[in-house]
Amino acid sequence: MSEKKHNEVSNIEIKRHSLAHLLAAAVLEIYPNAKLAIGPAIDNGFYYDIDFGEQKINDADLKALEKKMAHFAKQNLEFKGGEEKIDVALSTAETDNNPYKTELIAELKNQGAKSVSYYTVGKFTDLCRGPHVANTKEIKTGSFKLYKLAGAYWRGDEKNKMLTRIYGLAFDTKEELDEYLKMISEAEKRDHRKLGKELDLFCFSDLVGPGLPLYTPKGMVIIEELKKHIEAVCRRYGFEKVMTPHLAKIDLYELSGHAKKFSEELFHVSSDKGHDFVIKPVQCPHHTQIYASRPRSYRDLPIRYMESEKQYRAEKTGEVGGLSRVYAITVEDGHTFCRIDQVKEEIKNLINIIRGFYSALGLWDKHWVSLSVRDYAHPEKYIGDVADWDLCEKMLTEISDEMGLGAKRQEGEAALYGPKLDFMFRDSLGKEIQIPTVQIDFATPKRFDLTYTDKDGSAKNPVMVHRAILGSYERFLALLIEHFAGAFPLWLAPVQIKIVSVAETHLPACIKLAEEFKNAGLRVEIDDANETVGNKIRKAVAEKIPYMLVIGDKEAAAPTLSVRDRGAQEAREISKDDFIAEALDKIKNKKI
Length: 592
What we know:
Oligomer: single chain
Strand order of the largest sheet: 11-15-16-23-20-19-17-18
């Protein structure tokens, strides 16, 4: 079902919605006992949720359904809209024994609807507001494909029945679809779950539990390098490290408003000694208490805290997967307490940090900025004064204009306590992912009665600026793995140099060289396995090591090094000192 009117919907979205109906028609042709739920258009295609009952369907069955859809499309069938009185529609759904359509129609009736709209194509009629193509001839041959099956709880509620979701891809032309399929194929090769295992970066354990990643030594190298880099950058802007506990009384989050906002996502911890705590879902309330621990003057501001630490959210079990959605989130977090006249400069500095950080990784040109403001129709969703919200939104709009961000206003996307600038990037599949954010907060300092003594001796509330540069390390690591396809730049590579010994007699030379590299601050491994040199080289290539050196009789006796760069077919000759200097320069300057 669609809520949008025809003039608000793009042509491709209309085609995708129409294809969802053709999919439903094909399902009922082949599986007449199936019960249809909902089938909307989505980015790059469409889906339909279906209850197949006792029938089993697998990926191999998608070809028959796709063939049936293509058959319908070639018949030049018209989509015809119509209306039915609500009670008649409800009676029909009940007679058809379709609990999903019955629930939807009953809900509309409770909302006061007197009638519902339907669309018919061929012999198939479905509850729908439209719009649709006028005729199936508008859908070009080869422009769509049934892509995959997935499980989906009815209406996204894990308490409801699990339905079968059939995903389809759809574009205006076959050429666009083929191009997208190529991108999907490349993305599958880059999948962080696949590469993370192959490169030995992280793992999961059934005994530990899903959504709780375990990082290997190699994975920790990347996380520690990221942490050192972002902390060094932020220190230059006056941030200082703090550390807060993983537990707190519920009172802390009730005062901040997070207990209500995250009521269904909180982990509660108790003991037989009477302890009753909540595991930390966010860090900002903790930081307020460090600020509140001593008197503050206007001269002290801004005060900037940063912390990279675990937070915990009780996500729905069906939504947890890989590093993209986990229970234990390692968040790179920071908060500034400042005067109102310092807010704009503080935010501009943070934006400059974000721009520099993502430019160095080659990601800055793949972003857009969201000016995330409140949902004006539902003020009860937020805390704080309306006047403060107005001022915050005005400041962020001015900053976007002054810095040329071109931020797009997104209503209803604000944080609990204030508006924000969210920086949106695209992953290897072209899917948008939000990572860095800068947020203005007048409400929290007032809630916690945070004050500073102003020039005139009066007590005033500071403004709190929340920021995350790389967000959660989990999500950011997933993005990096897929962005670089596991071929990390030298400064992030867990192993920077692989030395391959041709035979056991060459090990002393390998060990001596490795020690020199380690003393210079480079990460190096020796492959001394009892295997052929060819196998060792293939392993190093598969591990995407930036530099490889093969040491045999010739190389052990040579005054220069024979270095094979990642991706190169042939080795190059370079002096040891020059090679070390080259590597250290790449690391220091974070070269990609």
